[in-house]
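Our preliminary data section would be incomplete without showing what the modeling component actually yields. Below, a chain of 245 amino acids is followed by its predicted structure, encoded as tokens that our downstream tools consume directly.
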Amino acid sequence: MNIHAFLVTSLAGISTILGFFVIWMKKEDSVLPSALGFSAGVMLFVSLLDLIPSALSYFRSSFLPGFHLLFCLLFINIGILLSLTIHEKLSWKAKGDSLYQIGFLSMVAIMLHNIPEGIITYVTTSLEFKTGLFLSLSIACHNIPEGICIAVPIYYSTGSKKQAFKMVVLSALSEPIGAILAALFLEDRISNSLLGILLAIVSGIMISLSITEIIPESFRYSIKKTVWYIGIGFFFLLFTHLLFS
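Predicted structure:
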């Protein structure tokens, strides 16, 4: 294992925990639409302008022209169906607690996103340390609001900071887990088509979660704040991408 690449990847993942501290803001009616709207903006940006273009790029190198788009759309739809299925199962277990469902689904989606992200960061840093370092800084910037996506709905649905913290830490650990998988099994074996499949599925989960869960829940508290913070989340990610591109 390349210890420097592992540390760089782990630091990017651990930055997710910083999003947990938003829950110390006291006014629920203000925090929830702001945090949920921001989360939706972040997830939509990551899906539409990061994961899907990356998935298309990986598929393009593995399939004939035209088929790469077909495969990408197929696995995006699989991600959407997977999200809806998890939501249906969780609705029964969580007894209709929509905030808890949002937090749990966010954790699942972000973990699925962070594992291949950890693989990519580890491999990139192993090959070219400076490029990997800049990649990890960019990932760290968007991992912070991903921590918010998990912590805020879990805390306000359970009233437990401990429960919110545990779920954020689980998500944060998925990035170094990706690095470990890369070091042990995948560094020389992972294919472009597999990475494309993972990223397309995760993008479908995040789009579905944002549109069917997070935004409608946030609208219950404030439509105006939700719309504003969707824009803020979107432009925050745009700024970090421009900063580190």
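The chain has a mean pLDDT of 81. The first helix runs from residue 3 to 14. Preliminary results of this kind motivate Aim 1 of the renewal.
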